[in-house]
Amino acid sequence: MFMQNLPTKVRINEVATRDGFQSEALFIPTDKKIEIIDRLSLLGLNKIEVTSFVSPKAIPNLRDAEEVMNSITRNPKVTYVTLVPNEKGAERALATKADEVNLVMSVSESHNLSNMRMSCEQSLAQFIRICELMKGSSTRINASLATSFGCPFEGIIAPERVIKVIHQYIDIGIQSISIADTTGMASPRQVYELCSQVRDIFPALDVTLHLHNTRGMGLANALAGLSAGITQLDASLGGIGGCPYAPGATGNICTEDLVHMLESIGLDTGVDLTTLLVMARELPELLEHDISGQVAKAGLRTETRPLSQSVIDLKARIEKH
Amino acid sequence: MFMQNLPTKVRINEVATRDGFQSEALFIPTDKKIEIIDRLSLLGLNKIEVTSFVSPKAIPNLRDAEEVMNSITRNPKVTYVTLVPNEKGAERALATKADEVNLVMSVSESHNLSNMRMSCEQSLAQFIRICELMKGSSTRINASLATSFGCPFEGIIAPERVIKVIHQYIDIGIQSISIADTTGMASPRQVYELCSQVRDIFPALDVTLHLHNTRGMGLANALAGLSAGITQLDASLGGIGGCPYAPGATGNICTEDLVHMLESIGLDTGVDLTTLLVMARELPELLEHDISGQVAKAGLRTETRPLSQSVIDLKARIEKH
């Protein structure tokens, strides 16, 4: 039965300041980033993916990664994550005492070559060195499986390929993963089937589902994942972010739209939706473009408005007769 | 289990030229409307809601309703629908030999007063007169239940209120209905629960689900409805349309995004998605604004691109070592 196996509690990880800001054309001022992260820290989110320790040449908007990480006010209830693409990034993350590093490799070799400029073999070898480097630190390691459902070069990805990579991750000691629909190609059936398999084969694994709304199926896919036993979702304030390979397409699933939907079906996210909406509504001015999030525009589904005076008058006239 | 009870075949009704065009600021030239309907007629759609026989003062964009209905080339496989708000409209629809008229009443009294300028009692009395008027004609009658899930004035609508109205419809001889989420307030749980009840209580009733994507849940709601036994969905090319009460919010669920999702999970719609996409991509120029449909921007999820030369070179270098 539809929605029969939904979890009662869902953890939400906010990725706007990393996956969102990285693809923005305008530089977002460092103090603005810090302010946004500090405000997000108070909203009941599980993790905040703060920034990425990449080359400033590759992603100029995140060139202030150290300053942001060192200046935010940490809430002990929140896990502060940074993306690290290589050992250099891992060292930088360690120096800023990130709670967690997020490593990324694509299930698709072609996408990994395009995105990381490495073969998957090279990525895995690097993961081993990063795990070595992190030993003894209190920083958690999460590893993402980009293009887990589809790759813009190789097409739809079979679940066996994802399962194989998860085995490779586990073999090198990784116990926390994100299954990512990097370019928004997943269908609800794919999400349900892959997530069910992952829950069955790796019951102890800490699994996050990272979805994009590129083809409008983001929230349907979120429901599919939750029905398959997933309890942790990445999402982005305002739905910002996206893949440079799909111009005009929207980015990550939108945090406030996701929380709004989950609450509408009675799931507990612990997230302060009212303040999320306030923050989402500030984004168009900051980013100088519209956002794809829809609840910020339409308002909560439970919001009502008073009847206009002409309707009240009409009603009175009808009742009189 | 998620998606266990999905139908294998789903009928899609296109409403862009009525629910979409009615809220457009620019007048869409009559010959353009006719051309669009004629092209839509060849795509495997179940119904096309062509126009609305309303007062031209109320909806100037549909002031050419007669001319459009009389000039389109009918495909006998398609049911050509016109919305009629009153007896006058029904007479106009009959004169143009519409295959079906769509009557509308809101489940919420406040919304009916606002939208139809009538009480629900008055609407029902009018439905009876329209049914009388249609007797002997070959024109089918469908009646919509607007605000079946939520009303912007009264808030969330309880399923019992919808069931009560369906009983009232059946009592006056109506056997075909549309359950409408007029302002996009439905949650997937609400859709699943109401549609399940309707299928259980009225197994012989012809039921369409009419959804809006105002708060981003449109496709999740469509899945919920299909899981509850619904096999007929309204949708709008490009996702155009919407409710004047929710400015900035998107309109109906988008036909091409819906068909794309349904095909991605293996459901047969019989609809020519390739041509739908061609037509959706022409809309921004015609309407002079962007559309909310996302597959038209991002492309099919199965579309792939070749690797760039630099990635091919990189791959060769890696393999050499």
TrEMBL record, chains A, B:
The lineage of its organism: Bacteria, Pseudomonadati, Pseudomonadota, Gammaproteobacteria, Oceanospirillales. This is Pyruvate carboxyltransferase. InterPro entries: Aldolase_TIM (IPR013785), HMGL (IPR043594), PYR_CT (IPR000891). Residues 10-277 form the Pyruvate carboxyltransferase domain. Belongs to the HMG-CoA lyase family. NCBIfam families: PRK05692.1. Pfam families: HMGL-like. It comes from Marinomonas sp. (strain MWYL1). SUPFAM superfamilies: Aldolase (SSF51569). GO terms for molecular function: hydroxymethylglutaryl-CoA lyase activity; metal ion binding; transferase activity. One of its GO terms (biological process) is ketone body biosynthetic process. Keywords: Lyase, Metal-binding, Pyruvate, Transferase.
